[in-house]
Write a structure and sequence with these properties.
The protein has 481 residues and is mainly α. It has 17 helices and no strands. The two termini are 13 Å apart.
C-alpha cells in the first residue's frame, strides 16, 4: 500500500515525463517538415530524396513500435523508456552536425528508433498508472504535449533556420531529451515481472520484413534503379512475409501480437480510423509547406507562423475532447474529428480555383479545420482503443496503436510526396507551366485525401457506443522497486 501511494503521488510527474517524450517526437517532426524545402535547396537534393528524410523516420517507427511494445510488456516499461531518451538525444546531435544527405538520413533513422522506444511505452505507462475514469483526460493531456510540440516546431524551425541554418533546429531537442531522461529515472517505477515469457523472434522478423517492404512499395517513386526487378521482388517479399507472420502468430504460444485483439470492435475500427485520420493530417502537413514555397514564395519563418495555426487548434481541442469523452464516450468525438479533417481537405481542394482573398480565407480555414480534425479525434480514439485492450497487453496495444498511426503518417507523406511529384511530372509533359502543374496536382491530392477522410468517418461510426469495453483493475504495484 505504501508503494502504491508513492506511485500515485508521482503520477502527474509520470504523465509529465511521458508528455516530454511525446513533445520531443512531435517537435522533431514539425521542425523537419517546416524546413524540408530549405534542406532540399541547401543539400541540392530532389523532392524524392527530401521525402525520404521524413519517411525514414516514419519507416523505423512503424517497424519498431509493436516489437518494442511487446518486449516492454515482457521486460518492463521503464528500461525501454529511459534508453529511448538516450538514443533520441544522441541522434539529434548527429542530425545537427550533419552536412550531407547520407549523415542526415542515418541520424534520422536512429532518431526514429529512440522515438519508437519512447512512444511505444508512454501510453502504456499512463494507462497502468491512472484509473480508467481518468483515461481520456490524461491521454488528452499527453496529446496536448504532442500538439505543443507541433505548434512550436514551425515557428522555432523557421526562426532558427533563418538565424543559424537548418542544422541548428535539431539541437533544440537536446535539453528536453536530457530532462526527460533524468525525470524518467526519478519517477517511472521499476516493475519486476516474475512471469516472463519468451519473445516471439520469428514473428518480429516477419513483421519487420512485411512492414518494410510495404513502406517501400508505397514509396516506389523513390526507387529509381532496377525498378522492373525491385518492385516485383518487393511484392513477393510482402506477400510471403505477411503470410508467414499471420501463420506464426496463430501458432505461437506467446505471440508478438494477439490477433484476437482485432476481434474487439473498438480496437479494430479505432486503429483503422487512427490510420486514416493521420493520413489526412500528414498529407496536409507535407504538402502545404511546398504550397507556401512554390506558390506564395514565403520565407521559412512566415511559413512556420502560418503552420502554427493547425497545432494551436489541436492544443486547445485535445484535452477538452479527451475529458468530454470520459463522460459521453469516444465514438461521437471520433466521428466529429473525421468530419473536420475531411472538410479541411475539401477547402484546400477548392482553394486553387479562387481569387487571392477568398483563397487566403480558404487556406486559413483549412488549417483551422485540420487542427480541429486531429485535435478532436486523437485522445477519444486512443482512449477507446487502449480501454478495449486487456491490462496485460497494454504495451503491445500501445505499440499497435502507434504503428497504425504512423502507418497513416507514411501513407499521407507518400500521397503528399510521391504522388504529387508523379502528377506534376505528368502535367509538365502535357505542356502545363510549373505553377499550373503544381496547383492542379495539389488539388487532386487534396480531393484524394478527402475520400480517405470519408472512409475514416465510416470507421468511427462503426465503433461501439459504449464508453468502455473493459474496465482495467487498479494497477498492482506490489512488485515495484
Amino acid at each position: 500500500m505504501e508503494r502504491t501511494a508513492r506511485i500515485q503521488n508521482k503520477k502527474w510527474l509520470i504523465l509529465t515525463c511521458v508528455g516530454i517524450g511525446a513533445f520531443l517526437s512531435s517537435l522533431n517532426s514539425s521542425l523537419t517538415n517546416t524546413i524540408l524545402p530549405t534542406i532540399e535547396h541547401e543539400l541540392n537534393i530532389s523532392l524524392s530524396q527530401s521525402e525520404w528524410i521524413v519517411l525514414i523516420y516514419l519507416l523505423i517507427l512503424t517497424i519498431s513500435l509493436v516489437p518494442i511494445g511487446r518486449i516492454s510488456d515482457l521486460w518492463g516499461h521503464r528500461s525501454i523508456f529511459t534508453f529511448g531518451f538516450i538514443i533520441f538525444t544522441c541522434s539529434a546531435i548527429v542530425c545537427g552536425l550533419s552536412g550531407s544527405f547520407l549523415i542526415l538520413f542515418l541520424g534520422r533513422a536512429f532518431l526514429a528508433f529512440g522515438g519508437a522506444m519512447i512512444l511505444s511505452v508512454g501510453p502504456a505507462i499512463i494507462t497502468t498508472t491512472f484509473p480508467p475514469e481518468q483515461r481520456g483526460k490524461v491521454l488528452g493531456l499527453q496529446a496536448l504535449m504532442t500538439y505543443i510540440g507541433l505548434s512550436l516546431g514551425p515557428v522555432v524551425g523557421g526562426s532558427l533556420t533563418q538565424l543559424w541554418g537548418w542544422q541548428s533546429t535539431f539541437f533544440v531537442t537536446v535539453p528536453f531529451g536530457i530532462g526527460g531522461l533524468l525525470l524518467s529515472l526519478w519517477v517511472v517505477p521499476i516493475i519486476i515481472i516474475n512471469d516472463k515469457k519468451t519473445i516471439d523472434i520469428k514473428g518480429i522478423f516477419f513483421f519487420v520484413l512485411s512492414m518494410a517492404s510495404l513502406t517501400l512499395l508505397l514509396n516506389s517513386n523513390s526507387l529509381t534503379y532496377y525498378r522492373h526487378i525491385v518492385l516485383p521482388l518487393l511484392l513477393i517479399v510482402l506477400a510471403f512475409s505477411l503470410w508467414q507472420f499471420l501463420r506464426t502468430e496463430c501458432k505461437a504460444s506467446f505471440p508478438m501480437i494477439d490477433l484476437q485483439l482485432f476481434r474487439i470492435r473498438n480496437f479494430s475500427f479505432g486503429s483503422l480510423g487512427a490510420t486514416l485520420n493521420y493520413l489526412c493530417f500528414f498529407l496536409t502537413l507535407f504538402v502545404i509547406p511546398f504550397y507556401f514555397d512554390r506558390i506564395l514564395h514565403s520565407s521559412a519563418l512566415i511559413t512556420g507562423i502560418y503552420l502554427t495555426i493547425t497545432p494551436l487548434i489541436m492544443t486547445v481541442c485535445s484535452p477538452i475532447a479527451g475529458t468530454l469523452s470520459d463522460r459521453f464516450g469516444s465514438r461521437l468525438f471520433s466521428m466529429l474529428g473525421m468530419v473536420f479533417s475531411t472538410i479541411s481537405l475539401i477547402l484546400f481542394g477548392i482553394m486553387i480555383h479562387s481569387s487571392s482573398f477568398p483563397a487566403y480565407c480558404l487556406l486559413i480555414s483549412g488549417l483551422v479545420f485540420s487542427g480541429l480534425g486531429t485535435g478532436t479525434f486523437a485522445a477519444p480514439n486512443n482512449s477507446a482503443i487502449l480501454g478495449a485492450a486487456p491490462h496485460s497487453q497494454q504495451g503491445v496495444a500501445s505499440g499497435i496503436l502507434a504503428t497504425f498511426r504512423y502507418f497513416g503518417m507514411i501513407a499521407g507523406t507518400t500521397i503528399g510526396g510521391s504522388l504529387l511529384s508523379l502528377i506534376i511530372n505528368h502535367f509538365t509533359r502535357q505542356g502545363f507551366d510549373a505553377k499550373t502543374a503544381f496547383l492542379d496536382a495539389f488539388a487532386m491530392i487534396m480531393w484524394f485525401g478527402a475520400a480517405f477522410g470519408t472512409v475514416g468517418f465510416a470507421c468511427a461510426f462503426s465503433m461501439s457506443k459504449k464508453k468502455r469495453l473493459i474496465e482495467h483493475p487498479a494497477p498492482d504495484y506490489s512488485d515495484i522497486i
